[in-house]
Amino acid sequence: MVIGKVLAIAGGAVFTVVLAPAALGAMGFTAGGIVAGSTAAGMMSSAAAANGGGIAAGSLVAVLQSAGMCELSRDSRKCMQVD
Asked: Which residues contact 47 (CB under 8 A, 6 or more apart)?
């Protein structure tokens, strides 16, 4: 029973790590920035309107964009600016 739970958790973690970058890209959060006309662009527009024109640091849009820019640590040097 415990082994089944461990395998389920491990499988879910692998599934999440593999599919999260694809999901972010599909929403419009990419390494090149937010894609015009995408779900991400709509989220950013709504967040900016709610915050007087800016995106609050630490907001959902900011966190998702950071994850998209870093491609969820596929290449952590992009986030750490290491050559």
From this structure: 55, 56, 59, 60, 61
Angstrom distance (rounded) from CA 46 to CA 14: 32
What is the model's pLDDT at position 47? 92
CA distance 40 to 30: 10
CA-nearest of 46, 27, 24 to 38 is 27
Report which residue type is found at 73: S
In sequence order, what DSSP letters do the residues of 66-77 get, joined into one string? HHHHHGGGTTTH
pLDDT digits (tens, 9 = 90+) for 33-53: 899 999 999 999 999 999 899
In the predicted structure, residue 59 carries a pLDDT above the cut 70: yes
**Contact between residue 71 and residue 78 where contact means Cβ atoms under 8 Å apart:** yes
